[in-house]
Write a structure and sequence with these properties.
Helix content: 25-40%
Structural class: alpha+beta
Number of strands: 5
Order of helices and strands: HEHEEEEHHHH
Strand order of the largest sheet: 1-2-3-4-5
Number of helices: 6
Distance between the termini: 47 Å
Protein name: SMI1/KNR4 family protein
Radius of gyration: 16 Å
Number of domains: 1
Largest sheet: 5 strands, antiparallel
């Protein structure tokens, strides 16, 4: 029997999709990485209480930014944990309230931009990643979801969770001003 990618069924489904798609991108800059591997969080703090609260799982862009789940509590349903963007230029913030919300944002086929999240501007189909349409179809079939209709509203909804994250992380690291 083949070993699972992670203890999170939703990520395992995405890994299966990614492997079936082959070596093409389906969302600009996104690529699953080794689950739980170093995401550069130790450069923020080597305190085990800080680093141990993250479950890294993907690259967010081509320059070293990553996504990690934030273990904000002891819930068993790991896919419901907030997703944190660990930026290669000093960004550290909640980008999605849960894993499936990140999947919706990935359907925009846009890299996250600093502390503003994803850009929801419509792009011509020629500009999408090669496997984008397959990803959007997979997202609809697998989770009944599509790209968010109002990116700004979705971004605003995660702000309270980001405030909670910033308060917690501020106990370990100096976060840049918003």
């Amino acid at each position: 029997m083949r070993q699972k990618y992670s203890p999170i069924p939703e990520l395992n489904l995405l890994r299966e999709f990614e492997e079936g798609l082959g070596p093409v991108f389906y969302s600009d800059g996104f690529e699953l990485s080794e689950f739980g591997a170093d995401a550069g969080l130790h450069t923020w703090s080597d305190d085990p209480e800080f680093v141990g609260r993250f479950l890294p799982f993907a690259l967010a862009n081509g320059s070293g930014s990553c996504y990690a789940l934030w273990r904000c509590d002891e819930r068993a349903e790991l896919a419901s944990l907030p997703v944190v963007f660990v930026g290669d230029e000093g960004e550290l913030y909640v980008i999605a309230r849960c894993l499936t919300e990140l999947f919706q944002l990935l359907a925009l086929d846009s890299e996250p931009i600093s502390d503003v999240g994803f850009v929801g501007a419509e792009r011509d189909i020629e500009e999408h990643s090669e496997g984008h349409e397959e990803f959007v179809d997979w997202l609809r079939r697998t989770f009944g979801l599509g790209p968010p209709e109002d990116v700004d509203a979705l971004w605003a909804e995660r702000e309270a969770l980001d405030d909670r994250f910033r308060a917690w992380a501020g106990n370990f690291v100096a976060l840049p001003e918003r």
